[in-house]
Design brief:
It comes from Sphingobacterium pedocola. Belongs to the glycosyl hydrolase 43 family. The protein is built from 4 helices and 41 strands. It folds into 2 domains: about 325 residues, Tachylectin-2, Chain A; about 280 residues, Glycosyl hydrolase domain, family 43 (Tachylectin-2, Chain A), CATH 2.115.10. The longest helix is centred in the first third of the chain and has 23 residues. The chain is elongated. The chain is mainly beta and about 675 residues long. The strands form 11 sheets. It has a 4-stranded antiparallel β-sheet. The chain has a 4-stranded antiparallel β-sheet with strand order 4-5-6-7.
Length: about 675
């Protein structure tokens, strides 16, 4: 019976890991919603050749925008377009957070509305430098019936969206052909349908066009948003021909809505216009406001020279908010909006200038990293005179991450992403899952020569990798360093390493353990241990995991985490000793870091400690639940964590003052 039970539990565990790994494929490397502070609007400005260029504007509320670069172009059409003109920029952040993509209409309208036969794909890592591919449809799809140069009327207004099911980016656009036509008010109009393709992995090519939506007349300017409440896709589009009653007026050329359960359709249209008056509009774009359950609908009032904005909580009913002005250096035409972080906003304004009267959002202190990270270890590197953070990459279902990153800073305030330094899938032969809780130590080998020993958890074992620089590349030793339990230990896991150099004895130690706390002296090679020195040091019943060790004024301090990382009561306690291997003295009140519900701060734990070089100033670096959403996530809060830094102080007798977790 026990065997069957164990086999069942093992099967469930493997399935959970498999599911977690599947989720991990789409995990974001970069910022998530909690990190966003502003909005970026990409647009073009008018039908002149000088106006058909990409421009940027920024906003703090999603409604009121100020142009960058004085309203001038930020990207020249001449450098990316076959027709030497671009329109309708649609911008998005990649699903994994590593890139930005933009798709555009390749067109110069001064050559006529039938002058374009293709689209442009753009890719960037910083919103400033773009790689481009222009796709001419008759050239790319010569055997596709009806898409030849003579018959193709236009390819307009491409947009892109991540298809979760296909695990690809779907590019969708309007196509008009001369062999499609219909009569409106006794005039023959080109018939437009929405089509879609899939982009390749490099975002440099697309698959053959496939039908997406046929409105029965002219449907252009599609914009798809997923409605998570109703579990359906909502397609906003311009009705180019039908007459529809709207607020008592009979209108044409308005924004309409269609819905479908699948991204690729079919979509069922609702016969009502969403725009706020009877004038013609186009180029609708809908986006979610940051950290709010509200959406903005924006569209181009192209006969009036301004944009209109409205808001909605249900993606069905929108309330008018305001128009843009019709003068000055901000006259947007058909564009789109994405949320950006304060760091990204600063980079853009450093490049193109801060608009007059535009106030930057206040600096963000805690959390200090954009995205989900946990179990931070911190290092001041003598080689570079910079600080480095080494966290667990978080946000993966059931802690199923497979890679490690590092971040650098000169100030402990602004942190630069240095990228992936160790990928279990590529760099480690003995484990490929559960990349957790690293730590690092710098060793001076000779003058101006250093080595960095990086200890990490993988598949509930502890390994070590070595590099010549704090940002790598790190080379794994080829085998686990700790894959066994110390003698006498029955439960727990072999995770959460901590490396420490004893300034008194000149020895190096490795500490580890979940459910127990063990130590062993490291050999001189730093990649193996002296097994005869293994000692169990578990302080008391509050010890769970995440030990960190440091030395100050003759005392060795040992900090650890109590409770479970999924619990809002995850917190830090400590002991001290006169030796790096104990015995430990536990102060009567040894709780030094805990939740603060008044600030919405929960699950403060798994920390490291930093001494500011040359001072007696100290910092504690730890993770907490994602704020403000984590407390409502249930079990998932345990793998949606963020990294924080706060001051840590000592009383005259050497005891640690309780840390006030801050925002």
């Amino acid at each position: 019976m026990n065997t069957l039970k164990n086999n069942l539990l093992l099967t469930i565990y493997v399935l959970l890991l498999f599911v977690g790994a599947a989720h991990a494929q789409a995990h974001k490397y970069g910022p998530v919603e909690k990190d966003f502070a502003a909005y970026l609007f990409a647009y073009f400005s008018n039908n002149d050749p000088e106006g058909e260029q990409v421009r940027y504007a920024v906003s703090l509320d999603g409604i009121n925008y100020e142009p960058l670069n004085g309203g001038k172009q930020i990207l020249s059409s001449d450098s990316i377009s076959l027709k030497k003109g671009v329109r309708d920029p649609h911008i998005l952040r990649s699903e994994d957070g590593k890139y930005f993509y933009m798709v555009l209409t390749d067109m110069r309208s001064s050559e006529g509305w039938q002058s374009n036969d293709g689209i442009i794909l753009l890719k960037s890592t910083d919103l400033q430098h773009w790689e481009h591919t222009a796709i001419d449809f008759p050239t790319r799809f010569p055997s596709l019936e009806g898409f030849d140069r003579e018959n193709l009327h236009a390819v307009w207004a491409p947009q892109a969206i991540w298809d979760e099911k296909a695990q690809k980016y779907m590019i969708y656009y309007s196509i008009g052909r001369h062999d499609w036509a219909y009569a409106v008010d006794e005039h023959i109009q080109p018939y437009f349908k929405l089509y879609y393709s899939y982009a390749n992995a490099d975002f440099t090519d697309i698959t053959e066009p496939q039908p997406l939506f046929d409105f029965g007349s002219a449907a252009i300017d599609g914009d798809i948003v997923y409605d998570s409440k109703n579990e359906e896709y909502v397609l906003f589009f311009k009705d180019e021909g039908r007459s529809t009653i709207n607020n008592g007026f009979r209108t044409r050329n308005g924004v309409m809505r269609a819905t479908g359960k699948s991204l690729t359709g079919p979509y069922i249209a609702e016969y009502r216009h969403l725009n706020f008056d009877q004038q013609p509009v186009e180029g609708s774009s809908v986006f979610k406001l940051i950290n709010a359950d509200e959406y903005v609908l924006m569209y181009d009032c192209y006969t009036k020279g301004y944009y209109q904005f409205g808001k909605s909580t249900d993606l069905k009913n929108f309330t008018f908010k305001q128009n843009t002005s019709t003068g000055g250096n901000f006259t947007p035409r058909h564009g789109s909006v994405i949320p950006i972080t304060r760091r990204e906003l600063l980079a853009l304004t450093e490049k193109w200038g801060l608009p007059t009267g535009f106030d930057l959002p206040a600096p963000k202190n805690n959390p200090i990293l954009e995205g989900y990270y946990a179990d931070p270890d911190i290092l001041y590197a003598e080689k570079t005179k910079k600080y480095y953070l080494y966290p667990t990459s978080d946000g993966f279902t059931s802690w199923s991450g497979t890679y490690f990153k590092t971040f650098s800073s000169d100030s402990l305030m602004d942190w630069a992403d240095e990228g992936v330094i160790l990928d279990l899938k590529k760099d480690v032969s003995w484990a490929d899952r559960n990349a957790w809780a690293p730590c690092i130590i710098e060793k001076k080998i000779k003058k101006n020569k250093y080595k960095y020993y990086y200890y990490f958890t993988a598949a509930q074992k502890i390994g070590v990798a070595v590099a010549k620089d704090p940002t790598g590349p790190f080379v794994d030793s080829g085998k686990p360093l700790i894959d066994f339990k110390p003698e006498g230990v029955k439960g727990g896991q072999e995770i959460d390493p901590e490396v420490f150099y004893d300034p008194k004895t000149k020895k190096n130690y490795l500490y580890w353990g979940n459910g127990y706390f063990a130590v062993a002296e490291l050999e001189k090679d730093m990649i193996s241990i002296k097994k005869n020195t293994i000692k169990v040091m578990t302080p008391d019943h509050t010890f769970r995991e995440g030990v960190t060790v440091f030395y100050r004024k003759g005392l060795y301090y040992f900090l650890w985490s109590e409770d479970d990382t999924r619990s809002e009561n995850y917190r830090v306690r400590y002991a001290y000793s006169k030796s790096a291997i104990g015995p430990l003295t536990i102060p009567e009140d040894n709780l030094i870091l805990a939740k603060d519900p008044t600030k919405g701060i929960y699950a403060t734990g798994h920390n490291s400690v930093l001494q500011i070089p040359g001072t007696d100033e100290w910092r504690i670096v730890y993770h907490r639940f994602d704020r403000p959403n984590g407390i409502n996530m249930g079990r998932a809060a345990g793998y949606h964590r963020e990294v924080c830094i706060d001051a840590m102080e000592f009383l005259p007798d050497g005891t640690i003052k309780k840390v006030e977790p801050s925002l």
